[in-house]
Amino acid sequence: MRASNVLQLGIKELRGVARDPMLIALILYAFTVSIYTASRAMPETLNRAVMAIVDEDRSPVAARIIGAFYPPYFMPPALISHVEMDRRMDAGIDTFALDIPPRFQQDLLAGRSPEIQLNVDATRVSQAFTGSGYIQSIVSAEVAEFLKRYRGKTTLPVELTLRTRFNQQLNKSWFGSVTNVISMITMLSIILTGTALIREREHGTVEHLLVMPVTPAELMLSKIWSMGLIVLVASGLSLVTVVQGLLGVPIEGSIALFMAGAALQLLATTCMGIFLATLAGSMPQFGMLLMLVLIPLQILSGATTPRESMPPLIQDLMLAAPNTHFVILAQSILFRGAGIEVAWPQFAALLAIGGVFFYLSLLRFRKFLR
Amino acid sequence: MKTDPVARLEKVSHTYGATRALDSVSLDIDSNRIIGLIGPDGVGKSSLMSLIAGVRTIQQGKVTVLGGDMASAAHRRAVGPRIAYMPQGLGRNLYPTLSVFENIDFFGRLFGSSRAERERRIAALLASTGLEAFAGRPAAKLSGGMKQKLSLCCALIHDPDLLILDEPTTGVDPLSRQQFWELIDRIRGERAGMSVMVATAYMEEAARFDGLIAMDAGRILATGTPAELRARTGTATLDEAFIALLPEEKRRGHRAVVIPPLVGGKDTEIAIEAENLTVRFGDFTAVDHVNFRIRRGEIFGFLGSNGCGKTTTMKVLTGLLPATEGTARLFGQLVDANDTEVRRRVGYMSQSFSLYSELTVRQNLDLHARLFALDPKGIPQRIEEMAARFDLTQSMDAWPDDLPLGMRQRLSLAVAMVHAPEILILDEPTSGVDPVARDAFWQILADLSRRDGVTIFVSTHFMNEAERCDRISLMHAGRVLTSDTPARIVARRKVQSLDEAFTAWLEEAVGKSPTPPAASKTPTAPEPAAAVRSSPHFDIRRLLAYARLESLELRRDPIRLTLALAGSIILMFVIGYGVNLDVENLSFAVLDRDDTGLSRDYALQIAGSRYFTEEPPVASHAELDRRMREGKLSLVIEIPPGFARDVAHGRPVEVGAWIDGAMPTRAETVRGYVQGMHAAWLTEKSRELYGRAAATGDFQLVIRYRYNPDVRSLVAIVPAIIPLLLMMIPSMLTVLSVVREKELGSIVNFYVTPTTRTEFLLGKQLPYIALAMANFLLLAAFAVFVFGVPFKGSFLTLSAAALLYVTITTAMGLVVSTFMKSQIAALFGTTLLTLIPAVQYSGLIDPVSSLQGAGAAIGRIYPATYFMTIARGTFSKGLGFEQLGGAFVPLLIAVPVLLLLGIALLKKQEA
Description:
The structure holds two protein chains of two kinds. The two termini of chain A are about 20 Å apart. Chain A has two domains: about 5-40 and about 170-370, no CATH class; about 50-150, abc type-2 transporter like domain (abc type-2 transporter like fold, 3-Layer(aba) Sandwich). Chain A is an alpha/beta fold. In chain A, helix 4 (about 60-65) links the parallel strand 1 (about 50-55) and strand 2. Chain A has 15 helices and five strands. By secondary structure, chain B is α/β, with parallel strands linked by helices. Chain B folds into four domains: about 5-90 and about 160-250, 3-Layer(aba) Sandwich (Rossmann fold), CATH 3.40.50; about 270-355 and about 420-510, P-loop containing nucleotide triphosphate hydrolases (Rossmann fold, 3-Layer(aba) Sandwich); about 565-575 and about 710-905, no CATH class; about 585-695, abc type-2 transporter like fold. Chain B contains 33 helices and 25 strands. A six-stranded mixed β-sheet of chain B has the order 6-7-8-3-9-10, with helices on both faces. In chain B, strand 21 (about 585-590), helix 21 (about 595-605) and strand 22 (about 610-615) form a beta-alpha-beta unit. In chain B, helix 19 (about 540-555) packs across helix 28, helix 26 packs parallel to helix 29 and helix 28 (about 755-785) runs antiparallel to helix 33. The radius of gyration of chain B is 37 Å and the shape is elongated. Classes of the chains: A alpha/beta, B alpha/beta. Strand 5 of chain A pairs parallel with strand 24 of chain B.
């Protein structure tokens, strides 16, 4: 093993990327425009929820309720008829439809406890629960306010004060932007190393290298550091300029520490790229394998939906994926301002996974070169 | 007899960037004759031929072929069926996984011949080329010579009037080459009226043509019959005539190769030694008990038919491949694949060009010098030395791809020599290189051997090169037939030339071997095709020919097929079970500063719910801070001191809920749960305190969860996964199917045949639509029967939408493929273009109506959005066409828009 070989071969990889303008354009796009639009598009769980109201009462209290729904949580409600309601929900236009019955105010004042019906499109699970909770408390508050003038006190004076930490506004784009940086890191590093290897084999240059005093380990390390470096630099720049700068996401912790974590993540993912490339015989096969690996990594790492709610088996399986640890690490460092004393278990896990992946792909790689 | 020329060029110029390939060329190509194009590499021969074939767009000047202007698309379509073009490179226009028969059959279909006619003609062509025994063998498994014969069959299937062959015999062994030309002669004999244009690097081939065109630097040097050219230059051979024709500055460096005799007797050191060397791949023996001893400083030539084991033997010597049996020694040391020390003494040049095209000439030399661990201080000097020696000084900062082939070969050799090895192993180093460059190359080899004592082990197909070796070995089917000096081999066979000796040896060996003969003894010439001329307009048969080709290739690649089908099922499982939006098991702890019955009751309310898992209580704010920062707690409930007392006295109290906002989705859910539980606790306590009146509440909010009454994630997610997967996999497959043809070269068949852009794209698309529909049915079946997601609506509606949708996703792949050149960029671009919008903007998790900005705009036009609405509508909402008609409209619009866009962007000619 000679460090100079690793260095020289890595420089060669960097020069190769520098010669491919399309690839550079795609890398830039991935780390700027793609992250920016994806984060800007991401709504809070209950952001601009679309609702419609069927007002069959047309009373002051109904007007009060209608007026209580406004952005950013809700889109201004559409006032529709009973007949339209089913059609609109079927077509997926409205997520919520609130039906205020006739004589609602009258019954309310008479203490007859009238019913309001809330229809929820439960196929949109992400908004269904939180949205109905919000609607319930908004309607309750309006009704209570309305009734206050007519009735005495019947509730306890206990108030719940919600204090959200680390991201007070629960601004989803904060989290979303970092999640997107993580996806890009994973996706790019696997694609870059994998395709670099397949291309080298298709062009016959791998063989050429092997007649020189170069070992497979040196060859592999050179690809890991060069492609890893490209992705690391791109993601670091993206974090500072796009995430912190353009999107204005406040970063509490140390970016340097996060980048150290990213380097470990890259060790694991670049090894994965090499591993997949040795399995695939051709680019189309590599493309299929890539899908098979990228999608679960992105969806099950805890970046899209919380890990806690996944089945235990998947939770355990995903512990073997570097992304899971990297997502936890990113959350605690970037948002909770955690230091190494808190985040060390993730660092250790990433290092271990990276080490195992490196070993396994080196074994595969040696066989592949035979 | 002088007829109209078959092709006429008037002031034709062609440039690639700054390089001028053709410089105002005017030329007539006589019909009914065989015309050869000769000239060094990179002088515009290939450009000229591809312009005549209509493969390239004409930049400047006028090209008239078969009586019409090739700049006119209508004329190109009309004469397309009368021209056949065979591009440079071994089997570049063939489909490697298709069998010999299927390859020819595909071309027959493109030209619209009927089944009976195709079968008859293919049989005749196979018989006359001696390929009939291999009709079922995949093209990838043919030797180079057989590939070229197959390419020729493909070109001849439609009985062209003009046959254009670009270096058809480069890299082909002498015996196969001879058979190839016999075949051409026979066909010409039977089909008078066919004009043939050939570019070649072999002067002995050029000598048999009717007319020659000598080219250099984009200009015509001379035209005439071979005899005329020789007479005009006063030379004896065409090789010499060609060199004499070159302009003064090109000739200056050239001199006849002089190799002084090898000094030293039999007792000099043995550099390379093979003893009973055998290599087997499975049950195939590539190298069969080969023996040789090569002395230091000797030039040892290795000859043989394609695929005879030369390359394998060389790989064993370099340590790239282990020997199955026997030994290989370099300077008495066993070659060990793991010993890098021995590699320092060897320089290797592989058959395929193996320089880094992304590095300049200097960078290539520098990299190799460093990899061989030369002293860094000495490297610049060494590079200068190599540059001077191999005449590269002028091009040190050029990219290898911009250099002519001959120069690239010199660079390859310089790279192999940079560490001053004692042994050089060169695998067909001069394949495709012109005579001048080859002579220069051999002069360098001679100097290395005689002056520096470098042992050279070289394989070649050129007989004049073989004659320059000290000794040669003839190899066939893994065995060495003979090994001696060239002169003695010729003498022993009692023939005139080495060429004849070689052919004699091979014919003898072929005759003895159990494999069927390469050429049948009684060739039957193909009968002329019936007057079937395919239509220049849209023809469903050509479309189906491409569809058939694509499905055959897909069937031959079971890994891709399995990954596409099984992969989607696996992904459905992973996502279906993995994405669970019912947030549960959230970690929570309590900071109870009151510690009374009432406060414990409040905390219990939360601890007892299925949503939260209680962790040990928190004692202080500092601890709260620490544990939340570690991400151990999602929620902390802080109950103030005097909570119970204040509640009892009706004084306002505040309970604090600290929520970890690092992951907003989870935080939102926690907030919702806590608020709900707080409200429930209040109602319950109010009832205890104020009696029943308070319990009924002012009004009731009745929540109806529609379509998915249990609010199960699976029901919501699984139907949405189908659009996601049907987006990514089909588009990836189609984009690669087109870009792969571009990268590997078979796209040229689309350029030269009458295939229209519509036929090509739709033909490529059809099999993937079929595959995607199979995928759809499989996914739908899994959703219903394995995941137990109820299907309530109209399956017909869903299937119709799926058909539209996969047409769109495959068309998206086609559109992307039109502007991607490399498979890497295609792979990357498609992933970016499908994965992110499909996961984030199409309503998989967040409804499209809630998105903002560019994301919302993308979501509204992205087809996945509408198919997701239809999938959820039919699965969960029990809907059919009437209700979902609206979502069909964007899909119906997208199909023609994308297809037309793809057709408009696809180019029918090369730039």
